[in-house]
Amino acid sequence: MIMQSYKMTVVIIGSGNVATVMGNRIVAAGHTILQVAARREEAAARLAGEWGCGYTTRLSAIAAGADIYIVALSDQATLELEQVLSLPDRLVVHTAGAVPRAALLAVSERSGVLYPLQSLRKEIRPFPEFPLLIDANREADLPVIEAFARTISRQVQRADDGMRLKLHVAAVFANNFTNYLYTLAADFCRQEQIDFALLLPIIRETAERIGHYPPREVQTGPAVRGDHATMERHLQLLNNYNNMSELYRLFSARIEEYYKGVVR
Hints:
Layout lengths: L8 E5 L3 H12 L3 E6 L3 H11 L2 E3 L11 E4 L3 H6 L11 E3 L16 E6 L15 E5 L5 H8 L6 E3 L2 H31 L8 H10 L12 H4 L2 H10 L4 H18 L5
């Protein structure tokens, strides 16, 4: 259950996908965003207008006195922030899955992590639900970060650097790589003049199944059956699609190997 009574004042550093989605969720939870700090003035001004707050393009002009500062930047920009920003004794958290907890220690000893485990795009509505993985460099700050996190997410879990990095890797496989496969399938459908939308029910069904069963138990297709005749016909069709042909061979071999000897 999302907490509704814990209110904080917030400064958001960044104006991209994570900053936008997190900021909207923070406003919806009843917190007050004091300021947006971003390199691009147009983006900062747009978000400030939506949230009714101030903005700046200069890190030296970041508002003092906020309860929490949320750094929603790229991994590299987050790692470089310690060279240009100092917020002593302020609670500062970054939103990156693969960046260490200690990355902002030079910015503030009261620093930590507020990582949304979700694929976020600022233009997509409605905004999705997302788990928040949290951590802190000082044990005393963990309850504060957790209380804040629980106002904007129904699923909050403490996670150290190792756990977050492992989940980040798993998310690349489960989300980024699968979306690339969707992209290849859509390109194939377009070039072969067939309707990609006909695949949407099977995509939804697979996603729904793994919410109820372990993924290994719901694998289907010619590779898991060892149906080499069908796989060969597929490969003939993919003769002019080098990327798809390469991936088809690789995935088919790995699936067949994984399920060899498995009773299904």
